[in-house]
Write a structure and sequence with these properties.
Radius of gyration: 35 Å
Structural class: alpha+beta
Number of strands: 8
CATH topology of the largest domain: Endonuclease I-creI
Largest sheet: 4 strands, antiparallel
Length: 319
């Protein structure tokens, strides 16, 4: 069963911006996440990009073909890792046309973009959205809606990670930043923020599924809270009834019960005959109000506790 993150990436991979600037920003982020520079004959530059997602591989190929006149090759291998997913290796064949492409993407030159900041590509809001889309497709993950809210982007390039954090914060996202081994992690743990992120990168179907899953989880949590509350209240009722019966027995042993008013004796007898009954049940049996039953039982308990204090006889009180 594919992960939720894979579902999101598959959806995003089928979206292609019409604007050239957005396509460039998306491709730049994708390549920042998973590409490395290779050298060919006569020091000509090429690129190598690896992903385990077939849809992301196809999207990268499409963006590369749109961005420049470059030759590409694709090889598919079986991963040696436990899950044994396919690995799609895209190779941009070294040629004179690769250098201009890399300069356009901010991967070469003395500009700030060459160290992963890509400022020239992020001037427009639409380009920043495309940039984040490319970053997620290249190195993003997200928990399933029913699990704990967590979205993260992972890269080995500190400057690139810093740029992503800057873009997210400029757009109002509560993004965290940390390192893990040789990688840098940008993460979002707020559910509302994650839904906003899915929205701006264009993952409409995933957003609907995530929102539905969150709502279902909230309903389940609410039901669990109600059940726990009712269980606790039921336990309190059972404990109170057991203690009342112990008190009534103590009154009987000490000959006090027979000397009480008929209303108290009837209430005591009704409680003994119905040890699991609620105050409402006892009130219906005795044809009185709940408050009246509660008052009478409190009176019986009070009398028993006075006897206990005077004689030292114990009455086990349930908490």
């Amino acid at each position: 069963m594919p992960s939720f993150a894979a579902d999101v990436k598959n959806e995003l991979a089928h979206k292609l911006d019409k604007k050239k600037c957005c396509q460039t920003a998306e491709l730049a982020a994708l390549l920042r996440m998973g590409a490395s520079i290779i050298l060919g004959a006569n020091m000509m530059l090429g690129l190598s990009f690896v992903t385990e997602n077939a849809a992301v591989a196809r999207k990268t190929l499409t963006l590369l073909k749109t961005a420049g006149d470059v030759q590409t090759e694709v090889t598919v291998t079986r991963s040696q890792r436990l899950k044994k997913n396919n690995r799609y290796a895209l190779r941009v064949v070294p040629s004179p046309n690769v250098r201009p492409l890399m300069e356009t993407l901010g991967m070469l030159g003395d500009s700030e973009g060459s160290v992963g900041r890509d400022r020239g590509l992020l001037k427009k809001q639409c380009c920043r959205r495309a940039y984040l889309r490319g970053a997620f497709m290249g190195g993003g993950s997200i928990n399933r809606p029913e699990a704990e809210c967590h979205l993260e982007l992972v890269t080995g390039n500190y400057a690139f990670a810093d740029t992503i954090v800057d873009v997210l914060k400029r757009m109002g996202f509560p993004a965290g930043f940390t390192d893990r081994k040789n990688n840098y992690l940008i993460y979002i743990k707020d559910g509302e923020a994650i839904m906003d992120f899915l929205s701006i990168i264009g993952a409409t179907k995933a957003l609907e599924e995530f929102e539905g899953g969150r709502n279902l989880k909230e309903v389940r949590n609410q039901v669990n809270r109600l059940v726990n509350c009712e269980t606790a209240n039921l336990q309190k009722t059972v404990n109170a009834a057991a203690y009342q019966n112990e008190c009534i027995k103590l009154l009987e042993r000490n000959g006090v019960l027979a000397e009480l008013t008929s209303s108290l004796r009837k209430t005591a007898m009704c409680r003994q005959e119905n040890p699991d009954a609620t105050l409402g049940d006892l009130a219906e049996m005795l044809l009185v109000s709940k408050s009246c039953v509660n008052h009478r039982l409190r009176k019986l308990v009070s009398l028993a506790e006075k006897i206990r204090k005077g004689t030292g006889e114990s009455v086990e009180k349930n908490s």
